[in-house]
Amino acid sequence: MLATGEAFWAQDRPFYMERNGFPEETFFDVSYDPVRDESGRVGGVFCIVSETTGRVVGERRLKVLRDLGSVAAQAHSAAEAWALSAGALASAPLDLPFADAHLDDRTGWPIGLHDVAAPKHCMATAPGPWPEPAHSLMVLPLGERAGESGGKLALGVSSRLPFDDSYRGFF
Question: pTM here?
Answer without folding.
Answer: 0.76
